[in-house]
Write a structure and sequence with these properties.
Layout (H helix, E strand, L loop, with lengths): L3 H9 L2 H9 L5 H19 L2 E4 L1 H16 L11 E5 L26 H8 L3 E6 L33 H8 L6 E5 L5 H7 L2 E4 L17 H4 L3 E6 L2 H11 L13 E3 L11 H14 L5 E2 L9 H9 L5 H8 L6 H11 L6 H12 L4 H21 L3 E6 L10 H6 L6 H4 L1 H8 L4 E8 L5 E7 L5 H14 L12
Parallel strand pairs: 2-3, 2-4, 7-8, 7-9
Antiparallel strand pairs: 1-3, 4-6, 5-6, 5-10, 9-11, 10-11
Helix pairs in contact: 3-4, 6-7, 9-19, 11-18, 13-14
Length: 480
Amino acid sequence: MVNSADTGSILEMDATLLAEKIRNVEITSLEATETYIEHLQKINPVLNCLVEERFEQARSEAQEADRKLQAGNAAGRLFGVPISMKDSFDVNGMRTTGGLVHRRDAIQDTDAEVVARLKKEGAIILGKTNTPVLCFYQETDSKLHGRCNNPWDVNRTPGGSSGGEGALIAAGGAAVGLGSDIGGSIRFPSHFNGVIGFRSGNRQVSDQGSYPHVGIDLQDRMLGIGALAKSVRDTRLINEIIAFSPPEERPLEEFSLVIPQKSLRYPIDPDTRLALEAVRSRLQQDFAVEDEQPPHYQQAADLWQRIMGINGAYEYGRIAFNGRPVNPGREYLKEKLFKSSELHAYFSWVLFTANMTKPSQRALRQTEQILAEGDKRVADYLDRRLLILPVYHTPAPLHGQVIKEVFSLTFSFRKYLPFVAYVNTWGLPALIVPVSQNQAGLPIGLQIISRVGNEDAIFKLGAILEEGFRGYKRCAIMSD
């Protein structure tokens, strides 16, 4: 048992600081691990962020780490540090469920590549976190695991698909966590929960052992993997561990900033607008700031929708329906009317909209041509520019609202999704930093975006925002 004074301190620490204190024998790995386990046992009944624990194994690994440290055999940048893991990443001996009832016993016998890299650096996995069905929508709810709640207001969504990670890190449930993002799945939870998040650019991190792996090239290019964290330096550290190669240094003074305001085009609420204006006012003291739309800005949401709707997302349906005929419309009604489906209504509805809006072969050929031409244009534009955009038009909305706004047959995604879709469509790295909060205390994050290869500059600018604005603040739920 760790005394209460130390407990709060450990929960506030980022992974970098905790690793340093463990190496310096100021805190033992077991003390840190027990602190997080006790805290997770307290908060999880309220948040439902953790869906599978490995507490006994974590304790044993922490004890072994402490023994190694005493013997002078400690090694690794995360040595003895307790972390959390999104359910979608395979962990040897743990389930990878995809939020599907028929995969509740799908125990894996290998680690995902990113998991293996983190373990090699000494990380200790506490457990796996909640996701929506097949990580397919930006809320976190499934028939298998149930709804995850936002710690700042449990009536509001933590976002998705890394919603469990976002909620857990916001409440201080681990030193750092890992997520993935093909449609804002790191950035929605980072923004809604007030944590710092980073998603890697196109094919910069291995997706081996990430579930589901559909294997459609146009979708694979949109996937990014990275940390949900308490500090910018932790997102950099995790990226250095899991990426194929570390980013080269980029002097920040060589960059100008693009912060669309008059040219933002898409709606944001007054609090988000004030946050964007405050950041612009601060940064224009030291940087040249342009107010313009980046290339292919207004196409991004449509292109994202086309890509995710390839074949009506049939492969996702095939996995979810588990050998039964794929009929999302019927499954949606079955759940809404009788609560008798194994699939959450959100998933059936999103799959139904994908079927209704699936692109023709002609539209796909056109998309491939636009991407081939646009990749170079976007990369050239962002060669020495950093783009700052909101993540969503509001802070965390009530449960279910994001589904209504993003997956409507009125095509309202064109209004609400462009900020996140721009990053996915063009395979760009992005860092989310909480910069403000509204009167209700709900966090507001902004994303810093550039081309692949400019990650160092992204992290440097992120550190400036982290220091000058809100940054990470742990949500002390239930007055813990």
